[in-house]
Every structure is written in C-alpha cells, then in structure tokens.
Amino acid sequence: MKKGGEQLTQMINGDGVLYQLLPDCIVGAKSKKREQCTEVTFGTRCADVMDAVEGKGVVGIILWVPRNTYDEVLKGGA
Question: CA angle, corner 26, sides to 22 and 28, nearest 5?
C-alpha cells in the first residue's frame, strides 16, 4: 500500500488535473460555533453539479497546506 503523499503526488502529476486557490473562488464563509467548524462556500468551473456531488467524472480534493510550505515551493525551494 502506498503512503498518502505518494498517492497524492501521483494524482497531481496526472493529465487533466486542475487547481484553484480557495481565496480566488470563495462565495461565502462563516464560523459555525455550535459545530466547531468553518463553513466555506465556493464556486468552480472545474466540475459540474453531479461531479461535485458524486465525483464520477472528476473528484474534488480539499488540501490545506501551511502557508510557509506553499510559498517555499513556489519560490523553487523544498
């Protein structure tokens, strides 16, 4: 069995993979204190409604990366 990072790297390097930055597509966000979570609503052109709900044609993956790691990789480091 492969580790999650290896699987993710293999998926990201596949044909047809698209990405979008959440701050660029947020429609709304609110803190839900009772559920102890943040609810984020966003728009995308990467999937239609059925793909977003059922994931048959494309699968959406939410990935949270520490900001310093993200910036370092974009600079050509790490």
Answer: 140
At residue 23, the 3 state secondary structure works out as helix
The set of long-range contacts for 42-48, using a CB threshold of 8 Å and a minimum separation of 24, is 44/20, 46/18, 46/20
Nearest residue to 62 via CA among 20, 31, 32 = 20
Asked whether residue 5 is assigned to any structural domain, the reply reads no
Question: Are the CB atoms for 18 and 47 separated by under 8 Å?
Answer: no
**12 is written with which tokens?**
């990201």
For residue range 39-52, list pLDDT tens digits in order.
999 999 999 999 99
Contact 58, 46 (CB under 8 A): yes
7 within domain boundaries: no
pLDDT at 9: 86
Is pTM beyond 0.90? Reply is no
